Amino acid sequence: MPRAWVTMVGVTMSDTRPLLDKWRLWTHGVQLRGAGIWQRIRVPSLDQNYLGNDYIGPPYSQQDFNQLARRGANYVVLSIPGLFTERPPYQLDTQAQAQLDTLLERALQADLFAVIAFRTGPGRSDFTFYRDGAGTWYPPELLIEDVWTDQDAQDAWVDMWRHTAQRYRNHPVVVGYEIMVEPNADEVALNIYDPSQFYPQYAGTTYDWNRMHRPIVQAIREVDPDTPILLSGMGWGSVLWLPYLQPAAYPKIVYVVHQYMPFLYTHQPVGVGRPYPGLFDVDWDNQPDNFNWSWMASYFSRLDLFAAQYAGPQTVGEFGVVRWAPGAAEFMRDQMNDFEQRGMNYAIWVWDSTWEPWRTWGSKAMNYLFGPDPDNYTEVPNTIMDEILTAWSRNRVRPSQFR
């Protein structure tokens, strides 16, 4: 039996608040503006206490969620471990489930909508997102990517999402399921970066996300007809790969992209100084390019190409830039203005935990509270955050308005 989530907010028979139409949040202009959080299963020998002391970290307190809401955000993307184990036998991970329950309770108390986004699950560990570090800063056995070759693992993703949808379909803040964060078979197994090269050879194989996502969507719809399903293409969910996505023929599908292009700008090392706008190589061909909004508009034209083929709302599940990039505030502003014009909900990456060991560990490259100084780890006024707060101030809808 699904949990009686409605009792958590004290709704009574005399409550006159309107019912929440989850689909309307994605289809009637920009209504959700917020941020993503990140967690993974801790490896104590590797992580020490940087990710906290629990099974999953870093820990997010109620205050972390409250601060996100107080600054104007009205939703949070929970980019977290899935509810089934990464290694066989693939089965329910009760500790991961308890952690998701806790995060959703904190979102509820903070009056934030939430999207459940699974980074990991059967045959996939979080280390796939930093796979180049295998054997250097972490033991190679932590890198699990069997999902792209193991049919049993893919079948277990179906079971995991059926269980998840059954459990959370009536939760008052859950407004979407992102069924896999950044599908990446193209790079993980094959080192193919061009979708036009990938699909002629690998369409219909276990590497093909178009083949894998359909039974997952079907399983969700068997138990939950209402919660929108967020579906991305491969290539880490990039805009470049979206035109190659073949959606499942089920209702209430939202097409999601993660936007970090051009990577040579958004992930530039400290001191490199590639500006927006500016002249530098953006596509790895060792030739300078004019990087400005015209370049971005051309790149985003793929969103229009996909929309012409498949009607339905689009959303930006993640986007960001290293905070020290020259012109970062203008780059974020121009992107958010474009999302607004397109009617796309959007979430910045990332809203970091304030757990002290985590807050001061590493570069915290996209914690915009810290401003453009890469050596600063305290909150300071800055133009990047100003642009984000201006965007979040447009939010008008929150869970407490509904029952």
CATH topology, which one? TIM Barrel
The total of helices stands at 13
Level-2 CATH architecture: Alpha-Beta Barrel
Mind telling me the CATH class? Alpha Beta
Report the sheet-strand fraction: 5-15%
Major sheet: arrangement of strands: 1-4-5-6-7-8-11-12
The termini sit apart by 20 Å
CATH superfamily: Glycosidases
Roughly what is the average pLDDT, rounded to an integer?
Answer: 95
Rg over CA atoms: 20 Å
Low-confidence stretches: 1-13
Q: Oligomer, anyone?
A: single chain
Structural class: alpha/beta
Proportion of residues in helical segments: 25-40%
Q: What is the tally of beta strands?
A: 12
The global form is globular
Number of domains: 1
**How do the SSEs run, as a string of H and E?**
HEEHEHEHEHEHHHEEHEEHEHEHH
* Biggest sheet features: 8 strands, parallel, barrel
Summarize the structure.
By secondary structure, this protein is an alpha/beta fold.
Q: How would you describe this structure to a colleague?
A:
The protein has helices at residues 24-27, 44-47, 62-70, 94-110, 151-168, 185-188, 195-202, 209-223, 263-266, 293-309, 328-342, 356-359, 383-392; strands at 33-38, 40-41, 56-57, 75-80, 113-118, 174-178, 229-231, 253-259, 278-280, 289-291, 314-319, 345-349. By secondary structure, the protein is of the alpha/beta class. It has a single domain, classed as Alpha-Beta Barrel (TIM Barrel), CATH 3.20.20.80. The strands form three sheets. An eight-stranded parallel β-barrel has the order 1-4-5-6-7-8-11-12, surrounded by four helices. Helix 11 links the parallel strand 11 and strand 12 (345-349). Helix 3 (62-70) runs parallel beside helix 4 (94-110), helix 5 packs parallel to helix 8 and helix 11 runs parallel beside helix 13 (383-392). It is globular and about 50 Å long. 43% of the residues are buried. Mean pLDDT is 95; it is low at 1-13.
